[in-house]
């Protein structure tokens, strides 16, 4: 069930008008109508206000409240909107993950700010930004909601790095970084770019240009503005679908598609 359909059915089940809901969450009626019709992406505070209004937690509201009863149609009911594009099930592509790790290490791994933590967060933004734009993940890697931001599923990423070390594809070293030690990935062979299509490679290059100079703390701060992280409970896996509810702080869709 789409977000717009969910809030429409919640409103009708509660016997509320669009004006009453708009007043309840503190927006103009015209703004709420756009949200309910799927013509405008809701902001985080609006989603939270809708959750408070219907006594539903944010994650359930975004995922679609399965308990919502089918309302009796009225003149105010809106036709359910189709998704922006079909979304594919996210499945791990181990070989593609290895090549993306190699490529990131080749392109930005030598920068002093880029250690294992930065690469981890670059992987997150590469995958979730691609999903927001195209409905697919490049690597299919799972990410967990941790205190300092999204983190790649540890058993998967650790196993992948270990396999790459054994295969002579990558070397893991520790280097001084201010008063700390930084773990870095040094590529020992070139990435096989035949594993990536032109659209994926262009996307990765754009992400590295945009984010490759940021520190781990800067990327962590950015992720804390991201709806997928905000709407996920600590320690739980982040649902890729949440990328479709990003605000302008992190959204990568065209400006015309995002509320400014």
List the helices and strands and how they pair.
Elements: H1 3-13, H2 18-25, H3 29-37, H4 44-54, H5 58-63, H6 94-108, H7 116-134, E1 143-146, E2 149-152, H8 154-166, E3 170-177, E4 180-187, H9 198-211, H10 216-223, H11 227-230
Helix pairs in contact: 2-3, 7-9, 7-10
CA(first)-CA(last) distance:
26 Å
Count of extended strands: 4
User: Which outline best applies?
Assistant: elongated
Q: Percentage of helical residues? A: 40-55%
Question: How confident overall, as mean pLDDT?
Answer: 85
Uncertain regions: pLDDT < 50 for 5+ in a row?
Answer: 69-84, 256-260
Q: List SSEs in N-to-C order.
A: HHHHHHHEEHEEHHH
Question: Sheet with the most strands?
Answer: 2 strands, antiparallel
Which strand-content bin applies to the residues? 5-15%
Number of domains: 2
Q: What structural category arises from helix and sheet content?
A: mainly alpha
Strand order of the largest sheet: 1-2
Please give the radius of gyration in angstroms.
Answer: 21 Å
Protein described:
- This protein has eleven helices and four strands, in the order αααααααββαββααα.
- It has a two-stranded antiparallel ribbon with strand order 1-2.
- Helix 2 crosses helix 3 (29-37), helix 7 (116-134) crosses helix 9 (198-211) and helix 7 (116-134) runs parallel beside helix 10.
- The protein is mainly alpha-helical.
- The longest helix has 19 residues, at 116-134.
- Helices cover 45% and strands 9% of the residues.
- It folds into two domains: 3-63, lambda repressor-like DNA-binding domains (434 Repressor (Amino-terminal Domain), Orthogonal Bundle), CATH 1.10.260; 94-254, no CATH class.
- It has helices at residues 3-13, 18-25, 29-37, 44-54, 58-63, 94-108, 116-134, 154-166, 198-211, 216-223, 227-230, and strands spanning 143-146, 149-152, 170-177, 180-187.
- The relative contact order is 0.14.
